[in-house]
């Protein structure tokens, strides 16, 4: 009888049969191992370390230039602190009156000249100095773009337009109203926007203003230090 068979199996040290037939088809697997309270913070710390490792080159380059400065170093140009991000709604237009997105300027160092399309003697001098400074950086010149921001709707003089288009890397010419541009760039007190060259980093941050009476060789030293300090993360060629 079934009762005696169960008793015999128990007496023989064998496991008793379950009366539930479904128990014959179910196999108990190992219980899931959940992260302990101690393991969760460790995972967050690991993720944070990975994030810091990715950002370290950018942070280090700016720390090197802005914070750690040997006593013998003197900046010729004026550092802008805090830096100013290019406004997302800056109304830029090309020479065909088509709108240009401000984000399209990111990805390269920018040497910016500002002025009216008539381009007086000072304007011509700045455009020449732009080109001169870029060439002075030698093999690093591929990391620098020249930009002329024209603050009126007057036609560009043909000799100026032709000169800006020459060379392996033609300068870019965009139009922008001066009142809008002043939300981003600013001259020294008592001067006008067209009195300076402006330097913008590849992230679109205006971070340096050249003196009004520019000495290119002295400004080049500042530019060269910045290019060296940012070599960890900046590469030639505008990001698409």
From TrEMBL:
Stretches for region Disordered: 1-27
InterPro entries named among the record's database cross-references: Thioredoxin-like_sf
Record-linked SUPFAM superfamilies: Thioredoxin-like
Keywords: Membrane, Transmembrane, Transmembrane helix
Transmembrane segments: 45-68
The protein, known as: Cytochrome C oxidase subunit I
Source organism of this protein record: Ideonella lacteola
């Amino acid at each position: 009888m079934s009762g005696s068979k169960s008793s015999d199996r128990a007496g023989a040290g064998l496991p008793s049969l379950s009366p539930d037939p479904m128990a014959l088809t179910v196999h108990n697997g190992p219980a899931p191992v959940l992260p302990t309270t101690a393991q969760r913070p460790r995972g967050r710390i690991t993720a944070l370390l990975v994030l810091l490792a990715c950002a370290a080159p950018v942070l280090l380059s700016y720390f090197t230039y802005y914070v750690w400065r040997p006593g013998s170093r003197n900046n010729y140009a004026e550092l802008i602190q805090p830096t100013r991000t290019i406004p997302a709604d800056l109304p830029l237009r090309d020479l065909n009156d088509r709108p240009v997105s401000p984000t399209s300027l990111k990805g390269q160092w920018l040497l910016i000249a500002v002025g009216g399309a008539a381009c007086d003697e000072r304007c011509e001098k700045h455009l020449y100095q732009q080109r001169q400074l870029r060439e002075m950086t030698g093999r690093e010149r591929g990391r620098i773009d020249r930009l002329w921001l024209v603050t009126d709707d007057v036609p560009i003089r043909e000799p100026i337009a032709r000169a800006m288009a020459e060379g392996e890397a033609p300068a870019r010419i965009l139009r922008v109203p001066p009142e809008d541009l002043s939300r981003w760039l600013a001259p020294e007190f008592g001067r006008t926007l067209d009195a300076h060259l402006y330097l913008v980093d590849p992230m679109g941050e205006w971070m340096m203003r050249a003196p009004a009476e520019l000495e290119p060789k002295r400004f080049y030293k500042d530019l060269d230090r910045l290019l060296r300090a940012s070599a960890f993360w900046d590469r030639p060629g505008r990001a698409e």
